[in-house]
Specification:
The protein has 535 residues and is of the alpha/beta class. The chain has 4 domains: 5-279, Aldolase class I (TIM Barrel, Alpha-Beta Barrel), CATH 3.20.20; 297-359, no CATH class; 369-376 and 458-535; 395-451, Double Stranded RNA Binding Domain (2-Layer Sandwich), CATH 3.30.160. The chain contains 17 helices and 16 strands. It has helices at residues 24-37, 51-60, 87-94, 108-115, 119-135, 147-153, 155-168, 184-195, 213-222, 244-254, 268-279, 300-308, 335-342, 354-368, 377-387, 436-448, 500-525, and strands at 5-8, 41-45, 69-75, 99-105, 139-145, 172-177, 202-206, 227-230, 296-297, 326-327, 396-405, 413-422, 425-433, 459-467, 478-485, 490-497. Helix 6 (147-153) crosses helix 7.
Length: 535
């Protein structure tokens, strides 16, 4: 069985992506997570390029990696410097990592236009830089920057740059498609030619500007590349890098390659989401293997088939990468979908139960009015409970009023007054907020706090409004989605109406009622077990 080495550059190349930001502590947490997964090389950053990367290498030096090798990244020495007095090389050594990756120029165009030295001098820079780091007992990974473009323009010189790195003693030669413009057939043809003259282990580092990075990376491994570089979730400059979240399962599950990640592959989805969270980016739901939509089924016939045999509409078992199968609620859903959701609360149901048919019709009716339950399963769970008499009313609304006052150039003032009844006892209260929905949210929480103190832990995580009929302008119906958390779990609720306040109220009520019922259920069971609204 062939082995492949996974080289992660999320903390360096991935951090160059738009809107991606990692603090030093974030980088340390991610490095530890990647080590636990079984990644072979973790590129931590460029020491000396910024204070944050220097601090990262200083702090991470106290951590004992269980498997991964930490890599410091930098360039070959600057023209006119000796290796001994070159600050880039000295900072790389100061980082104290067992492995160092340096890039050099493979494209004569860059040598002439960027370095502005002779082609021969560039070869001396590459060889001398690699040799100097090897003398300090470092594993040296040489990244041949712009190699594919360089080879297409001047193949003889591009190969000479690799040979210079080999003379210096490089342990790995990595072919980089830095501009990301190479197509798969070109990349493989070039790799084959390189392999015919270079015997040192090869790696690939591909950018995704043509949308081909992941495909080229996988094909390159099949053609003999031992090391494959990429980032988690495909983060990186411009269009990003080859996505390790796709590369890893394809190599291990589809092509039978062996990796230190193999026994930990079920942690892949968790790791992907963990990195999204720390990067402060929403996790891409449509990522292959690790996205929440990767094994989500919507059409009723598909759902019925998958329930009978997963292989009908799934190419791998979701659990193999730590993901899960999801059945989406929509107007395309049939009784099988509703049954799957309902039987979690009501065991021993069948598709022929009259309530299942009623719920299916109700679902389609509500979606026709603008509701959507794919991201609001808590609202649908409440519908199920009400249909099967499993619902205990939390409170009833007697009425609310919202006042918005604007004076001159001063900020608008908003106040909500609400009257509710809980177990026959009335409560009237008012609250101010940043806007009408916020004021209403604050008022209902204030009114219910005396009866349900657990709502103090409810946190509105996200609030989205979608206009459903754009041609109607401000008179259009809207759908409101609310995501709430109590610190243990998240749940989504929905409302729809031509009145944005009414739609928001519907979603708010479901959010609060669901949360209170969940808390009460946990107390009865004495645990914090999951339910069908967990996300």
């Amino acid at each position: 069985m062939s082995k492949v080495l996974i080289y992660d550059t999320t903390l360096r190349d991935g951090a160059q992506g738009e809107n991606v930001y990692f603090s030093v502590e974030d980088k340390i947490k991610i490095a530890k997570k990647l080590d636990e997964l079984g990644v072979d090389y973790i590129e931590g950053g460029w020491p000396g390029s910024n204070p944050k990367d220097m601090e990262f290498f200083r702090k991470i030096s106290n951590y004992q990696f269980s498997h991964a090798k930490l890599v410091a990244f930098g360039s070959t020495r600057r023209a006119g410097n000796t290796e001994e007095n070159d600050p880039v090389l000295q900072n790389l050594l100061t980082a104290g990592t067992p492995a160092i990756a340096i890039f050099g120029k493979s494209w004569d165009f860059h040598v002439n236009e960027v370095l502005r030295v002779s082609l021969e001098e560039n070869l001396k820079i590459i060889e001398g830089s690699v040799s100097y780091l090897k003398k300090h007992n470092k594993e040296v990974i040489y990244d041949a920057e712009h190699f594919y473009d360089g080879f297409k323009h001047n193949p003889e010189y591009a190969i000479q740059t690799l040979q210079a790195a080999l003379r210096g003693g490089a342990d790995f030669i990595v072919l980089c498609d830095t501009n990301g413009g190479t197509l798969p057939y070109e990349a493989i043809e070039i790799l084959r030619k390189v392999r015919s003259v270079i015997t040192t282990p090869l790696g690939v580092h591909i950018h995704n500007d043509c949308g081909m990075a992941t495909a080229i990376s996988i094909l390159s491994v099949q053609e003999g590349a031992l090391q494959v570089q990429g980032t988690f979730n495909g983060y990186g400059e411009r269009c990003g890098n080859a996505n390790l979240c796709t590369i890893i399962p394809n190599l291990l599950l589809k092509l039978g390659y062996e990796s230190a990640i193999t026994p930990n592959l079920s942690a892949l989805t968790e790791t992907s989401k963990f990195i999204s969270e720390l990067s402060n980016l929403t996790h891409d739901t449509r990522l292959p293997y690790v996205g929440s939509s990767a094994f989500a089924h919507k059409a009723g016939m598909h759902i019925d088939a998958v329930k009978k045999n997963m292989h009908t509409f799934e190419h791998v078992d979701p659990s193999s990468v730590g993901n899960e199968r999801r059945f989406l609620l929509s107007d395309q859903a049939g009784r099988s979908t509703v049954l799957i959701k309902a039987e979690k609360l009501v065991p021993d149901l069948t598709k022929d139960h009259p309530k299942i048919s009623e719920l299916t019709d109700k679902l389609k009716e509500l979606e026709n009015l603008g509701y959507q339950f794919e991201a609001a399963e808590a609202s649908f769970e409440l519908l199920i409970k009400k249909a099967f008499d499993l619902y205990d009313e939390v409170f009833s609304l007697d009425g609310f009023r919202i006042i918005v006052e604007k004076r001159g150039n001063q900020p608008a003032l908003t106040e909500a007054t609400i009257k509710v009844t809980v177990n026959g006892e009335e409560e009237l209260t008012a609250a101010e907020g940043d806007g009408p929905v916020n004021a209403l949210d604050m008022a209902i929480r204030k009114a219910l706090l005396r009866f349900y103190p657990e709502i103090k832990d409810f946190n509105l995580v996200d609030y989205k409004v979608r206009v459903l009929e754009e041609n109607k302008g401000t008179a259009a119906a809207v759908r409101v989605l609310i995501d709430t958390s109590d610190g243990h779990k998240h749940w989504g609720t929905v409302g729809a109406s031509e009145n944005i306040i009414e739609a928001s109220w519907q979603a708010l009520v479901d959010s609060i009622e669901y949360g209170i019922l969940e808390q009460q259920g946990r107390k009865k069971k004495g645990n914090k077990g999951p339910s069908c609204a967990d996300t």
